């Protein structure tokens, strides 16, 4: 049989750099899908341990330089206490890509120093609740429906109610947007909550969840060895391949009622 060829229009996911500035200085450049940029910036700074809460946030917003064509791809965050940030070593720079995992920035030991375990969180979730979460999140993924090229992160309560859903070309960016949205609503820490991510659970996903005090992380795909190690040592539940009525429980089985 012969083959046929035709030209069609297709929607593709947008990927652009976003510079995050803190008190006038560049902290990071991340590759992201435009949208919810203020949340992304705040979430990134929080999960990196530079901001500790909304009370340290004076303002956040896009900065447009008329002399440059940056199209608003700069977010300026101003803190209430620059001296406190200096003590946290915030002058370091980060370069993050949409496919990065550890990005060479933190070891498990340093994460544990910033974020103690969540053993005290009494969250337990029924299996029936967990099995519904992926479909609940998928129903809200408008960006994925259009392009098929963006990830999602969803925050749920213990009954399975969707609280926050964000999409981005990078899984870790989607998580930062969820955390940033919670910070701006003064809803941190996220104790007793469940974080669901499309794709796999990397070390960085679990690290960000731990910084936000999320005790339960579930993913549509697999988990990495470092993600399991960090989650297990931190008293978190980590679930992978959450599809239909099955899942892999890597650690924290006691959190499944």
Structure description:
- It is a single chain.
- With 257 residues, this protein is of the alpha/beta class.
- The chain folds into two domains: 16-105, Ubiquitin-like (UB roll), CATH 3.10.20.10; 127-255, Cytidine Deaminase, domain 2 (3-Layer(aba) Sandwich).
- Helix content is 29%, strand content 25%.
- It is built from eight helices and eleven strands.
- The protein has helices at 37-47, 82-87, 108-114, 127-138, 142-147, 171-184, 203-211, 225-233, and strands spanning 16-22, 25-32, 57-62, 74-79, 94-96, 151-156, 162-168, 194-197, 216-219, 237-243, 246-251.
- The strands form two sheets. Strands 7-6-8-9-10-11 form a six-stranded mixed β-sheet, sandwiched between helices.
- β6 (151-156) and β7 (162-168) form a beta hairpin.
- α1 (37-47) crosses α6.
- Mean pLDDT is 89; it is low at 92-106.
Question: Could you provide a short overview of the structure?
Answer:
The protein is α/β, with parallel strands linked by helices. Strands 7-6-8-9-10-11 form a 6-stranded mixed β-sheet, with helices on both faces. The chain has helices at residues 37-47, 82-87, 108-114, 127-138, 142-147, 171-184, 203-211, 225-233, and strands spanning 16-22, 25-32, 57-62, 74-79, 94-96, 151-156, 162-168, 194-197, 216-219, 237-243, 246-251.
Strand content: 15-25%
Give the CATH topology of the largest domain: Cytidine Deaminase, domain 2
Return Rg in Å: 19 Å
Kindly report how far apart the N and C termini lie: 56 Å
Number of helices: 8
Secondary structure class reads: alpha/beta
CATH superfamily of the largest domain: Cytidine Deaminase, domain 2
